[in-house]
Amino acid sequence: MAIEAVVFDWGGTLSVFADVEMEDMWRLAARHLAPERQEEVCAALVAVEAASFARIPVDQVSGTLASLLATASAELELDVTDAVLEEAATHHLDSWTPHVQHEPDAGPVLAELRDRGLRLGLLSNTHWPRAFHEHFLERDGLAEHLHVRCYTSEMARTKPHPDAFRTVLDQLGGVDPSRVVFVGDRPYDDVHGAMSLGMRGVLMAGRPVPPYPVEPEAVIDRLTELLPLVEKW
Question: Is CATH 3.90.1200.10 correct for 5-18+100-232?
Fold first, then answer.
């Protein structure tokens, strides 16, 4: 069957992997809220965020920024919500997260795939609201190439749960999973999840992510390596 669509993960796939990108945000919010407790508040926010992602292999229940902030507030006995939202409203996101950059090949590869007539999608495990991701995609000229952009902060489930993948497939027009390539850097969340639903899973190699015993359809080191694979399939 000919390929009709390609769906990408965001962090570590279209964007350059950066472990510290969210800590920048938390540190600014902590400084805004309680300068004398900056390190404590920042560490608590980092830990709550990490715990949220650690739940993915357990239950694939999605989280939101609001739920994360509520958890941190309860643990610290200090309301951090207003500080984070005020920082987000008053400071430019590029100042918050100087580490967020996209792969140099992302734009040209997306443009080439779209020119070939393929439908393109994005599916990201995230608790951050849509506006956060859209800002960086628009800044770097990627949003215009992606027909649909799906974030698990707007869903009940995260990858690798089938419901997360069905959401992006439905938004792409109900395309048959066997006609879709999914590209991601996580063997469990991305490759295993996509292939379990019948999609072709392509692994972006070399990222410091947890291993998982799954055999991808292909392994690539750069996004440009995807183009001949899609042509072949």
Answer: no
